[in-house]
Design brief:
Elements: E1 2-13, H1 19-24, E2 26-36, H2 39-44, H3 53-64, H4 71-85, E3 89-99, E4 109-117
Antiparallel strand pairs: 1-2, 2-3, 3-4
Helix pairs in contact: 3-4
């Protein structure tokens, strides 16, 4: 088994429960980690035998572009897609962070983190 991480994906998106949040938008950070067997790709040297991190970045960007009230909803969509579209992935963890959230204090970011294993 091996781990592939795509870290600190920076996106601008329109998530939030407040009307202003979805209208104005915010900066977000997403970290995605997937677990998969990398044995075949380590020998074949072929992209088709591994998890393409360009694909992972694309999934994050596309799902972050769909407005949601909760970060948990966005995170679950990301997890659902990586399992659906990359059968080699056995486990995935995604962290979605809202930078400088409007919560009435000096807070750098709020983060939700979710993990899931492939259902057999």
């Amino acid at each position: 088994m091996g781990i592939i991480k795509v870290e600190n994906i920076r996106v601008f998106a329109n998530h939030g429960c407040l009307k202003e949040e979805t209208a104005i938008g915010s900066d977000y950070r997403v970290d995605l980690q997937v677990k998969a067997s990398l044995k075949k790709s380590s020998k074949s040297d072929e992209l088709s035998d591994t998890v393409d991190y360009v694909f992972l970045n694309k999934v994050v960007r596309e799902e972050m572009a769909i407005p949601s009230k909760l970060l948990e909803t966005v995170a679950q969509r990301i997890l659902d897609r990586v399992f659906k579209e990359a059968s080699i992935i056995t486990k995935a963890t995604v962290a979605v962070s809202k930078i400088n959230p409007p919560i009435g204090g000096d807070v750098e970011m709020v983060t939700i983190k979710m993990s899931e294993k492939r259902k057999k």
